[in-house]
Automatic annotation (TrEMBL):
InterPro entries: Epimerase_deHydtase (IPR001509), NAD(P)-bd_dom_sf (IPR036291). It is found in: Golgi apparatus, Golgi stack membrane. It is a multi-pass membrane protein. SUPFAM superfamilies: NAD(P)-binding Rossmann-fold domains. Homodimer. Gene3D superfamilies: NAD(P)-binding Rossmann-like Domain. Belongs to the NAD(P)-dependent epimerase/dehydratase family. GO terms for molecular function: UDP-glucuronate 4-epimerase activity. GO terms for cellular component: Golgi cisterna membrane. This is UDP-glucuronate 4-epimerase. Its EC number is 5.1.3.6.
């Protein structure tokens, strides 16, 4: 008899009986107990195997539709790809984890870093906020230049920890986020998931890493919200966000302050101003105006109260990339190690804009000339769904400290965008409806 057979189900209450009938019942009970025990052990083993398997990352915690996915990662071949992608190939090179690498800005920054010999590893969850086939095409582009994008979510701390175990990243270029101002009214949870929970999850891993990396991350011009003082300077007020997107970016800036203060993480926030260019984002006006003008569909152009002009400080992607590289190259090391601060660390924030706002109606005129098609303009009042009337960056701080000098005017940049658009979508790919 095993020790199990003698164990009372309720300790102290069970009394051994001696009758043969009781013996028989006991034996039967003990077989049942054994069977139940081994069934549970077996089930447990299956569950442990399933969740611990190196080829299956744990489920992300976000309940939103897009995040209910498992990602395949792990195993020796996967680690080899991670190491090879992140290997530094130039003297004084850096090794960078780029989150949101399959995104618009992430693809361009990753390619630029790789070109100069830095080690680059991408991370992206390939969500379907906009056509994921465009993200896959960007992934294929990066793959050809030797950049591997790990498929996973920034809230997956097991995956992040693993990446830092495999590679001692010197820098993190954090671009993964739920972008877009209007979509925040449709799916607010996705902004909280990626821009707040995701950022904290990433910083938690960075603070515990040894060595801690320096982090450069994308904030946004939207933090200026209802600020009316122009041009927008870094010291202007940012406490009146006009959208949940803006509020999550502002929260990111405060979270950055906290991790810098407590853990000695070196953190640089970049406030991008309406970035555009080849491989851009289909949810942005210059992109869907192009699509709709070509289809002969009417486009909505917003104007503010009293026929006020709506204008944007459109910034060409190559200029933004230079700003990102400038921020990475001037970032000082984090000062903490293993979760402990050793001294004060760098905390910065910069505007990256073009510093010459253009009315949206002028953007449409440029597109008309480049596409050789007249747009069907539908002038509408600017709705109160998060968009602000104008943006205009003061970039003197970035110029002074990062050597940032935007060179591309809207006409030149849109010409490059239109050339890419026509070749990309005439290649058999369909611009999403
Ligand atoms: N493009 C602009 O005009 C602009 C302006 C201001 C700020 N920004 C910021 O710059 C960054 C890059 O923007 P973009 O235009 O390249 O956007 P994008 O949507 O093209 O790129 C973001 C990428 O992050 C990924 N991602 C989102 N949530 C994720 C998560 N939880 N885990 C892993 N990956 C995730 C997406 O799949 C996407 O590929 C974002 O932080 C954005 O908020 C962009």
């Amino acid at each position: 008899m095993s020790h199990l057979d003698n164990t009372p189900s309720t300790p102290g209450k069970f009394k051994m009986e001696k009758s043969p009938y009781v013996h028989h019942r006991l034996r039967w009970h003990s077989s049942l107990a054994k069977l139940t025990f081994w069934s549970f052990m077996f089930l447990g083993l299956i569950l442990i195997f399933f969740f611990r398997s190196p080829s299956s990352g744990p489920l992300p915690q976000d309940p939103s539709r897009r995040s209910l996915r498992t990602y395949n990662w792990g195993g020796p071949a996967w680690e080899k790809r991670v190491r090879s992608s992140a290997r530094i190939r130039s003297r004084d090179g850096i090794s960078v984890l780029v989150t949101g690498a399959a995104g618009f800005v992430g693809t361009h920054v990753s390619a630029a870093l790789k070109r100069r010999g830095d080690g680059v590893l991408g991370l992206d969850n390939f969500n379907d906020y906009y056509d994921p086939s465009l993200k896959r095409a960007r992934q294929a582009l990066l793959e050809r230049s030797g950049v591997f994008i790990v498929e996973g979510d920034i809230t997956d701390s097991t995956l992040l920890r693993k990446l830092f175990e495999v590679v001692a990243f010197t820098h993190v270029m954090h671009l993964a986020a739920q972008a877009g101002v209007r979509y925040a009214m449709e799916n607010p949870g996705s902004y909280v998931h990626s821009n707040i929970a995701g950022f904290v999850s990433l910083l938690e891993i960075c603070k515990s890493a040894n060595p801690q990396p320096a982090i450069v991350w994308a904030s946004s011009s939207s933090v200026y919200g209802l600020n009316t003082k122009v041009p927008f300077s870094e010291s202007d007020r940012t406490d009146q966000p006009a959208s949940l997107y803006a509020a999550t970016k502002k929260a990111g800036e405060e979270i950055a302050h906290t991790y810098n203060h407590i853990y000695g993480l070196s953190l640089t926030g970049l406030r991008f101003f309406t970035v555009y260019g080849p491989w851009g984002r289909p949810d942005m006006a210059y992109f869907f105006f192009t699509r709709d003008i070509l289809k002969g569909k009417s486009i909505s152009i917003f104007e503010a109260a009293n026929h006020g002009t709506v204008a944007r400080d459109f910034t060409y992607i190559d200029d933004i990339v230079k700003g990102c590289l400038g921020a990475l190259d001037t970032a000082e090391k984090s000062t903490g190690s293993g979760g402990k601060k050793k001294g004060p660390a760098q905390l910065r924030v910069y505007n990256l804009g073009n510093t010459s706002p253009v009315p949206v109606s002028d953007l449409v005129s440029i597109l008309e000339r480049l596409l050789k098609v007249n747009a069907k303009r539908n002038i509408m009042k600017l709705p109160r769904n998060g968009d602000v009337q104008f943006t205009h960056a003061n970039i003197s701080l970035a110029r002074r400290e990062l050597g940032y000098k935007p060179k591309t005017d809207l006409q030149t940049g849109l010409k490059k965008f239109v050339r890419w658009y026509l070749s990309y979508y005439s290649d058999g790919k369909k611009a999403s409806e």
